[in-house]
């Protein structure tokens, strides 16, 4: 569905995307993870035919975005990060107008709207104004709008940012159903649990390059351990105490408020810490997550 080889994007002297290779198979959910400024949005814009590549090769549906942009766009659905809905129109008319942009016949658009409102559980809100919808409803309407042309690839930029847990899970369910129906999903997200839930494959980008590629579970197995033991001591003590426990784990991280000890047996690590007459204020053993991988690969420093 999508193939990129040595793909680059520059803005003057700044190179946002530095020669990445990506291959997206039909029917998968493919994720782009990375901190702000990693090159995710620039990559998505090239795939969506709104920003020309500066170098390398890019094919979408086997076509060149530089030559076949309109043909590619007709087969894409795009759900932007912001809900760019028309607040002057009701829910039904937002979908109707958007469907007509694709040149779909009126009868087909009307039938499609009924299907989509049912799919995103907004049938009873068809005549409601956009301003009267909750955040989760607006997001579901935006997803419905992106599906009006029956796209083969659905591009989602931060699909659940700012939503409460209940709304997020409703959207996850809708996206999972789309994938089961054969729609290829391409998404960016800052929620690591969302990436673990939705993505079959993903890449982690940092400073315009791909630093890791694989399945969520595969990346955890490759770049982390099975468990993480978290130790909390008094304020300001963690740096000094790290040297006393670093041999108990494969890797240790010193944070201002806790120590993270990565190992395959977190409980054994905690027992060993206590056996050395060390008394943490609090301890926690948890499974290693995609967030551990992400922070290990891209760092914990904020990037503006």
Automatic annotation (TrEMBL):
Keywords: Antibiotic resistance, ATP-binding, Cell membrane, Membrane, Nucleotide-binding, Translocase, Transport. It is found in: Cell membrane. GO terms for cellular component: plasma membrane. The keyword Metal-binding does not apply. Transmembrane segments: none annotated. It is a peripheral membrane protein. PROSITE patterns: ABC_TRANSPORTER_1, ABC_TRANSPORTER_2. One of its GO terms (molecular function) is ATP binding. Pfam families: ABC_tran. Residues 2-232 form the ABC transporter domain. One of its GO terms (biological process) is response to antibiotic. Belongs to the ABC transporter superfamily. This is ABC transporter.
């Amino acid at each position: 569905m999508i193939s990129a080889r040595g793909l680059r994007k520059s803005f003057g002297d700044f190179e946002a995307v530095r020669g990445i290779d990506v291959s997206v198979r039909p029917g998968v959910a493919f994720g782009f993870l990375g901190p702000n400024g990693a090159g995710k949005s620039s990559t998505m814009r090239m795939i969506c035919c709104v920003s020309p590549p500066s170098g390398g090769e890019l094919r979408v549906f086997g076509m060149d975005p530089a030559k076949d942009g309109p043909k590619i766009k007709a087969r894409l659905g795009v759900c932007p990060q912001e809900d760019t809905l028309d607040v002057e129109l009701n829910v039904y008319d937002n979908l109707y107008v958007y469907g007509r942009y694709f040149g779909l016949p009126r009868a087909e658009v009307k039938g499609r709207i009924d299907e989509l409102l049912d799919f995103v559980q907004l049938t009873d809100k068809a005549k409601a104004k956009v301003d009267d919808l909750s955040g989760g409803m607006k997001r579901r309407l935006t997803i419905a709008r992106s599906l009006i042309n029956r796209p083969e690839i659905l591009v989602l930029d931060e699909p659940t940012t700012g939503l409460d847990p209940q709304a997020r899970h409703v959207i996850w369910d809708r996206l999972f159903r789309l994938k089961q129906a054969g729609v290829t999903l391409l998404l960016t997200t800052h929620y690591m649990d969302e990436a673990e839930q939705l993505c079959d494959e993903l890449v982690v980008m940092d400073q315009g390059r791909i630093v890791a590629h694989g399945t969520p579970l595969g990346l955890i197995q490759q770049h982390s351990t099975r468990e993480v033991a978290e130790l909390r001591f008094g304020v300001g003590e963690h740096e000094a105490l790290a040297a006393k426990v670093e041999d108990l784990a494969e890797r240790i991280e010193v944070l201002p408020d806790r120590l993270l000890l990565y190992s395959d047996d977190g409980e054994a690590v905690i027992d060993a810490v206590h056996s050395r007459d060390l008394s943490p204020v609090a301890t926690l053993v948890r499974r290693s997550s995609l967030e551990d991988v992400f922070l290990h690969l891209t760092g914990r420093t904020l990037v503006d």
